[in-house]
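Quick check before the chapter quiz. The format below is the same one you will see on the exam, so make sure you can read both the input and the output lines.
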Amino acid sequence: MLNKFHKKASKAFGVVSSAPLARRVLSRNNFLIKNKFNSLFLLNNNTFLSNNEIKCYSTLSKDVFDNETYDPKLILHFGTLTIPLPEKPTSLEDLREFVATGLKLNNNKECIKFFEIDERNKEKQLKGQLKLKKEVTDIGSFQGKALQAVIQVKVLPFSFLQLQDAFPIYLHDVRGAEDFAIALHTYTRKYKYCYVFRIATDDDGTPQREGEISKAGGVKRSTILRMIDENKEIPLVIRSTTVGKIYKASQFALKKGMEKFTLIEEFEAKIASLVSYGEYLWIGGNDGRLYMYTIEPIHKENQAPKYSTTLLKKKVIAMKKAILNLQVDPPHKKLFALIDQTVSVYDMTTLTHLGTLEGTRGTTCYAINKNFSHELVAIVKKKMMIFDYREQTELVREMKLPTNENVTSIEWMKKTICIGFPKKHIMINYQTGEIDEDLQKLQLTNIVSDEYSIYGCFVKIIGISSNIQWKESISSVSICFPFLIGISKSSIEIYNMYEKRFTEPIENKKAILTSDHIQRVFLANNHSIYALTPKPIDQQISDLIGRMRLLEAFGLFEKTFQGTKKEKERKLFYYEQQAGFACFFRTRFKEAFAHFNKSKIDPREVLWYFKDLLEPESNFIPQQSKGDLQEKIKSAMEQEGEKDTSAIKIEVRIKNAKKALQEFLEKARKMRIDEFTHDQLSAIDYALAKLYLNEFKKYGELKTLIRAENHINIESGEVLFRNNARYLAFLYYSKNQTRKALETLKALGAGDLKETSTNTNGVEESIEILSELDDEDLVLEFCEWVFDEDETSAINIFISKLRKKRFNPDRILSFLYCYPPDLERTYLEYLVAVERNQEERIHTQLIINYIETTVILKPTKYLPFGVRVDAGKENGVLGEVRGRLIFMLEHTNIYNKYLILSKLQKTSLYEETLIIYRKLQNHEAALKLLVHKIQDLEWAERYCVYCYETILEEKRKKEEEEIQDMIKQKGVQQIMDTDKSEKRIYRKNEDLEELNPLFITLLGICLNPEHGFVRNEPFALYILKTHAKNIDPIKALSLLPDDISVSKVHDFLRQSIQTSKNRDRQAMVIYNMSKIRHVKSKVTLAKGVARRVMISEDSRCAVCDKPIDASAVFVTLPDLTTVHFKCVNKSSINIHPLSGRNFKHFPVDFDEQITESHILNPPYSM
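Here is the expected output.
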């Protein structure tokens, strides 16, 4: 009983019980199995909430497991299958292995995904009608009780004419095409309103004939699973439908696919074969005569082309023997024929016999390589023989046929040879001799679509063995795209490959068939030749477009067009325009304008249907009027089955059309502006302006359009913007009518004109225009009313960075004189900071403005030290303005200091006055201000230290600059004396650094104050004690009062005496060290002078190695090397000409060259 149960459970999910989790599930038998088609595990509770108790029971046998129940730990759903698991898997891989085992997926297990169940939409989710959201990637962290398993696959959608990119979808079940259709509808937008006509598998690639989805599956479940396991892209034949209907596509039917007319009637011989190429037709007679005709097409508008023939040549090439299987090789100008089971070669133009291929005796059929590679294959006595006929016929290869069946036909393209047998065909790679497995799968649908141009010659063979249900047994097949033509004994059957249906057959009487695979087919019976011509390609394409078969229409165009690149482009633009209007009148506006963009259509052709967007005086006449837009939209709504076709609904569609129109015009204006004429651009800009203004209220885009270069006519603009003076002014300005634009805005401000789009008085717009103008007179003329309305914003007119020309600041300042000083200050700051004005009067005027503003804002009462805020750090505008004032006084010297000082002395701006005193080196006045008025003694002390350090730093910089200038003026020789100058400077600066004269000034102010101020003796004594080392004691003592106690200056006197003694000792040390250095320098000089160089007849120059004679001028280098004067580098005398040694940086040690004895007793005399 248990084995029986295992078998049924395995059948329910296709489970092979070798998987661990599968064994654990199947070992428990407390659930019901219903085995009917897809067996189902059923639960007694139709809910998946994790907090519900779900009981599972079995009625597999009334005698076994009766009334046994349990609570499953996890419930797994896949399609219509529900599996209660008695144990929760330890990992997601274990659960994936269980599902993969059930589906027999051995390799591609990663395609199985698990998602949580949405309790509110569980039915839709399980059926695949709802997008999955929460994927489970960790079974341990999953707290729910129900999971859904799905399969992620890649599908490859295609029609007969266009292959799309593959993309992934989730399959909720794998029953057939219906599940793929549901997944496409749920997970894609592009194919939302499509249906799956067929799954084109490797086993059967030909689409089934028309039918419902349920009938179009036609593929076994096991085949789909096998493709998923092999990780293959599953090809889907997809058909588009009417919006909202996904079950059946509209059919395109042709009552009569092709027309038949007589080309040559009552031919003089019995016809055995014929072949055509280009404008020539060759006919082989049954009596050995060969004919050559020219074919000239006769075109009539909207009619299939017809042909007339002219006989060029006629020649007897085989006496009373039939000429069979004519084939032509145009590049090599050769014509082949099968005569008496032997392949003969002729010149295709002169019909001259060129020879017979040796070894072809007994040939039943042959074919030349359609790749025109001078190769030929012949079937001779169950063998396949390959020849090369480039210059001399040569047998290249010989292969046995893979079967003993009789060969009925053969074709060759590139490396592939297609051999036809009575009931099948095979594809052989002639280089390897093996069957090409990939091409063996090539189906007729592939040949007539994507591979048509390459393997079109194989149609004659594959067409017979294909699964097309011909009404009678056919003898041969040819192609006249998009039709397949099959010849039977009694009729010519024509199969429309787009519609998968036959058209009206044509009567046939023992005809043979040939075709050049483009747009003409020739038939011949014993004594007549006929031509089959389809409906003109242009008409076929237009019909397809009219029925919204756009992919097929453009595919047909690509496959059949012959002409130059320009002609193709022109035709393609025409069809894109047709497709655009076809979509447009079916309210598929986005698709329509996408086609319009590709067609490079004149935008006025589309605008003509929007009467309210046309220019008032437009004289444009469309090429072909297609009716009223509202009527077209209403008709389309009725065809879609909408009951409500009221004016409101139609207006909604029209608004959607205008949205798409706006995007189309914007893109066309951006991408194709160089292609349009002025009239076209004018129509585009006017329509966009009206859409922005009236339809969509996009005032920002409208302003951008009008402000930039545009092509709206002034007259049209005045009508459009009659109640929008703001945009009318911008239009005038864009047309260089600046005065008119400013007058319009001024009238708007005065209330004479209206602006309905926004609440404005024209001030902002006037500022915007005036800020860009370079005409100073015009700006000053129209800016007055703007300043009267909004002076704060109007100042931006003069400080704009958009202006290229600089105005005269005197005129602007004169104009601003009547307005608050804040405006003048703003403009002066612009002159200084932006325009970098270096005029003293501008800087002085700005500083005076700062001073006056600060005085107004600053409190009148001066706060005492410790309470007041540092200058420039006050809150609000005062701190901002005063900070800028202090910054300018500190960091620039381009102002009249005396004028500023006179202004400051009348105010309480003591900090700013100090800066001026310091700049003027009037330290005594500065210190008096600090001591008597500011009363900040610490600041006075810091002032003395800081100012004197600044003085010393400036002097050092000045002396360094003087040295650098002296070196540049006097050259390199001056460097020799630099050390002495530096020592002199050092000594001078050292004396200065020790004694600070500002302290003497401060002492004088404190001890001998002016009338009205109190003597500050304690602070003076503090300065003497703290800075005793930096104060001249003689000058300090002279300032002390006569009645001061010695004890108060005791510390100062002690430090002064110690400092004086230290200076004396330091001077003595420096003096003695200088004497020692002087003695050493004399010894070094003596050693250097004592050196001698002997010049003899053998002396030679160390550089040029030439002798140094008595008349030559020579130089002796510090290392006693002797060289010619001309061999020395004059610009760098200190560098050795050979070694490159710099004697200045690396001097010579005289002790190594000469000793004291050499000095006292020289080895030679002068």
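If your answer matched, good. The longest strand covers residues 146-158.
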